[in-house]
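quick one
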Amino acid sequence: MVELKTERSIDEMRAAGRVVARALAAVRDAARVGVSLQELDRVARGVLDGAGAASPFLGYRPQFAPVPFPAVVCASVNDAIVHGIPDGYRLRDGDLVSIDCGARLGGWVGDAAVSFTVGRPRPGDLRLIETAEAALAAGIAAAVPGNRIGDIAHAIGTVCRGAGYGIPDGFGGHGVGRHMHEEPGVPNEGRAGRGMRLRAGMVLAIEPMLIAGGTDDYRCDGDGWTLRTVDGSRAAHAEHTVAVTPAGPRILTAP
Ligand code: MG
Ligand code: MG
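structure w/ magnesium ion:
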């Protein structure tokens, strides 16, 4: 079932989304060569705590997971696509980092992710990140009343495939509200004009994930969480929580 949010609820979700944006900005600021992923997680925890927000990630345990998620951010470096567990790994020059963060405030959840490089970037990584952001922007632009879920999926997939990148099969965006993962699913590839019709009050996490090598294959680490590319190429992830409104898409996790 899809819960349509009132204008007031969307305003409240915006407050949660602002906390996510602040946490991601703080993590990005702190991410330098030599800093560990656990230290980045602590930076995000500090922002959530300071805002009186809880983490929908910490302790989260979907069906596929052997253990509850132990952190407030996912930190996925280089060939890790999503769901990386922040550990003692210290960032190295040229790393490509994807950080995914959520916040629960006033009963509402915000969910967003950003990818960036540390130190001297590889040109290919910058192109990959730019394409992830362009795919996210295209998906958001399609999130208008009267369109369908397939229009968002098609917009995202067209940008990713057009640049020659792979899309991990079976992962994508989702409805978001009182829970982090609600209906409907928002695939990162699909046919325009298909799927559930978008209505004002729907709130969606739109989140393209791109594989640089152009294959769609991924594998899961022994930790049961971290998804990695099979070809060893790098991956990028970008995400916003977006409300479908009569005035157009409203990005609730914008800075
Ligand atoms: Mg997320
Ligand atoms: Mg999400």
